[in-house]
Protein 1
Amino acid sequence: MIKIVFFGSDQYSQIVLETLQKNQEIEIIKVIKYKNELQGLKKADFRPDLGVVASFGSLIPQNIINLPQKGLLNLHPSLLPKYRGPTPVPTAILNEEKETGLTIIKVDEQIDHGPIVAQFKEAIKEKDTSESLLNRLFKIGSEVLITILPSFLEGKIELREQNHSQATYTQKLTREEGQIDWSKPIDYQERFIRAMFPWPGAWTILRQGSGGQAKRLKILKAHLENKKLVLDLVQLESKNPVTWKQFLEGYPEAEIVK
């Protein structure tokens, strides 16, 4: 039985956790969801063979990295060393990449810096949002992890050092960075809406007629048609999502502030 401590804090990490839990050769002895849960962890509390990190969102200190006998494996949704950091998938979509992937690395004390255990490529589809692409990457990644675990634990996989000179980095997104820049090209705006879904969400400012109160309007879904951006699904602050057609029926004088 492989004893694993799992680090993960969102819907994408849950994909990996559920895959591990379904395997009868694996026992999840502890799940760490939040950074403050790292405090006070000691080897005497549990003796894992391995730690698995998936979309945890916090840097794990060296003393925790050293707890499991075989260290920690991290599933990072990019082709490392490209797109290290917290937002590799939104950044790849915004940069109009045709493919991305997922890399399983052995964790060291630096962010997304450790040696590569396994890596695969995945095409970015025309209508992919960050959510759909992350769901797919972590689903495939969890299956790859299950496949390579026995060989890794037996020391049969030769780890490959990343080419650190080729590393690129991504930055954490804030809610304010979801505001659409209407001066950008139309195709960029469409990619931006997909890249920002579900977090922080693409949004713009809207007014109800001249002199009306400014409100924030989230644009959840849009598409290109005849070189124009067509809004499909929107959400006014404090309201439920509706189609753009339904929105205009309710707010006929609404104008987007560009």
Note: Residues 2-166 form a domain with the Rossmann fold fold (CATH 3.40.50.170).
Protein 2
Amino acid sequence: MGFDDEIPAFISALGKVSRASENTLKGYHRDLEDFARFLTERGRSVMEDSGAIITSRISADHVRDYLAAVMDRSSRATAQRRLFAIKAFYRWREASTGEPSPVRSMKSIKLAKRLPHVMGERAVAGLIENAAPVSPAAELRDRAILEVLYATGLRVSELTGLAWRDIDEELNMVTVRAGKGNKHRVVPLGEPALEALQAWRSAMPASSSPNSPVITNLRGGRLTARSVQKIVARRLVAAGIDDALTPHGLRHCFATHMLNAGSDLRSIQEMLGHASLATTQRYTHVSLNHLKEVYRRAHPRA
């Protein structure tokens, strides 16, 4: 098989063996197809006369040239993600064919450390409270979306993947069944978020059976992540907040505000569904900046 034919085989194997999420599989597929397009355009040395890319002809230099081209038009983080996909592909291929990977010893791309963007608690409250009415039902749904994102720190894909069976109204908990690696976790919901969900459920235009999606459009179809982004952007305008906050930004707000209020990192890690505590620890930097600012404003000899 040529490189183009091996990509679908790798994606299929990855889905079966590692139980990677659908988003991860789609991302790896896109990244490898982008690499294949680069080789087709510039890598004549790796192609047959028919135009098929011969995987065994791809060298580390081809990959380095590709990553350099990616960084010319995109971020280093994008290039790093593409390298992860290529390395994963070659690990699978080496295990399947015994041919050594040309990128085994290639080092990861160093990324600039960026702190998560976080809005203050008052600004988040304003975002939730200030309606951007489209219709009464849409307002109830949009309020539920914001309340749940901020109350739980869910990823947007996790929010849109919720079914009503995942909401435990007696315990005020939500079961997240579609996290990274398909690992389930249970997260506290909070009274305002639960009340917002109950109000939306009573106004839903379609079935709210246990297996029905929680977040839908006004015709009853499951809402997309892109639609949730548009809702958050519309609410920012309605609240008069000049900020480019995204739904994922509410996840950052959740973690940082919890940390500022005294929650421990381990608990936040569990609620966010981070596999590694190191991923959660970046919020300590945001929290320390907050602490320094409080000290600067409050201490007479700061």
Note: The chain has a mean pLDDT of 88.
Protein 3
Amino acid sequence: MWAIKTQGIAKRVGADRQLFAGLSFAVKPGELVAITGESGVGKSTLLNMLAGLEDADAGEIRIEAVALGRLDDAARTKLRRERIGFVFQAFHILPYLTLEQNVALPLALISPDSAAAKARAGEMLAEVGLGNRGRDYARDLSGGELQRVAIARALVHQPAVILADEPTGNLDPESAGRVLDLLARAVRSQGAAAVIVTHSAATAAVSDRVLTLSARGLTPAHG
């Protein structure tokens, strides 16, 4: 069974620019797929489409056999909340919450068990090297630290699908290595399907497959 499956999806920008068309690919549970490509080809747009944040102009996207195009906004929001972890390029960390509160947010939206959410958030902060910073406020963090918090938050509820947009773009090599290891271990141990947009050779190296996105669609990076 595929966790992510697309069939013939297309996306335009404006009236006269086709980002891509006829794009079909699938990702199975426990698989990490890296997507590379030149700036402007639509890599971040593709991630947004997989998350149900943007609609495809044609074709179908399924997450765990659920067709996104058949869901209303409320159902898409519920699916994202419960089954998808998203690491945005812009972090979307709330500055006036503590790191612990930021990481626990996905759990707070799913379950009223605040003690369990707090404990799990602490575990994830430790995993990304911020275990002693849970009570610090996000407004006081560097860009690299915010990225690590964003990754901890994306993984805290053990999602079936992980979508990440340049997850190591603001990290030094040592921190990037730790984060990549965490992502790879989470994908395999949780049986999650991950799609990571990246320019990083290190990210590509830990991936099961590397695909290049262009107007022609997705092709194996070395094929």
Note: The chain has one domain: 28-55+72-217.
Protein 4
Amino acid sequence: MTDILALLQPIAPLISKTTLRQLGRVIFGMLVMTGRVTMLGISRWAGKGGSYRTIQRLYNTILPWAAIYWMIFRALLFQSGDEYILSGDEVVVSKAGDETYGKDCIFSSLAQRPIPGLAFFAFSLINVRLRRSTPIQVEQVVRSEEEKAACKAKTQARKVKKKPEEKRKPGRPKGSKNKNKQQVELSPELKRIQIWLQALLNLMGDILPLKYLALDGHFGNYPAAWMVLQNQLHIISKLRYDAALFLPFSGKKKKCGCRRS
């Protein structure tokens, strides 16, 4: 327990002494307990000073978690001179009951089906040399009613069989106009992630310069890449299966005709 309090000293200026002591008890209980982590289970393993009411008071306390994560990483885990890559991904946790804030029916990649639970989007810093990932920011994903309705309508539209269209004539349709591809309309999901990403970069400042943001294949599209570029980062992701990707032409070019790229 003394070692845990010593490791928590970097965040002492951010929280009160009472909260620091409660946090030490909770960490001790989570490290020694077995099975699923619950408030009741933590109180049984936390020992003296870690009653169920104490755990409730801690969970009802508003804490600056983003600053806490960053201070712990900077004081205990940061390796000066090493290269870091920022990564982001959404995590789904199953949850029963009806009173939990943000509970929704969310698709789980592990279960391969929608399940009742909570969704969290986490940013992590990856040390390239040590090949070690450290969570640096975790935010709960709460979708609005408009976003749920739009997602449901999109899913139903996919199920409806499209009518066979008549074969269009070759060439550009008459009356069509050029579109400005630089103007991108971000989805509500990308807007949320952009706000969290900007807040994290502002918190870190110039102490840890980052170049890349790694995301999964769900974000392998132009709007997501545009959003990342607006924050002076480059995206590392997996392209969609139907992406039109071609390698540069390396053969001999003809004297006549258009140039092959």
Note: Helices lie at 2-7, 17-32, 39-45, 52-59, 65-77, 145-159, 188-204, 222-229.
